[in-house]
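Task card 7
Instruction: Convert sequence to structure tokens.
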Amino acid sequence: MNRNFFANFLFSIVLVIGVLFAPSSQANMVVGDSNAKITVKVFSSLTCPHCANFHKKIFEELNAEFIEKKLVKFEHHAFPLDLAALNAEKLLRCTSEPARRFDLLKIIYDKQNNWAVGNDINKINANLLKLGTDFGIEKNIVEKCFVDKEMEKLILTERIESQKKYNISSTPTIFINEKKYEGTHDYKQFKKELEKNL
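Output:
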């Protein structure tokens, strides 16, 4: 049995346990005005190159042109596809300063090719640990987050509930005001879709 198969097998078991025992509340991350006319929901797996591409090409301009002007509320929803993505999501929620989580999300995506490599989950965790401590999170706090079962249940619940409600088959899956965005990951086209809702 190769490591990749074994890791995915373990993740499937974790997900099943999550279905059986997970609490009902979601733990998605939100930035922007709660009363904004437009809500953008992005369902992502942090090891997904397409998710990183979407974030890099769209989020920063979206933030400057729409989020900071209170026109858009942006939601990051966890949809981990493997154990590495699950642990990266734990790291993302590990900081005690929720306002900095989107800063850490940017780093996780920018450095995806450095930490999300190979099939050895222990090595990937070590990479994530370094990424977290470089960001300013204490080592012992990151280590506690990696084994935090309540946090794990919340993340898996978010994925389970998202799957039920939105029938997600790939990441990233993006919704603008509950309508699935089918366009390319290009800011100009994405902006046009947003402007239709203003």
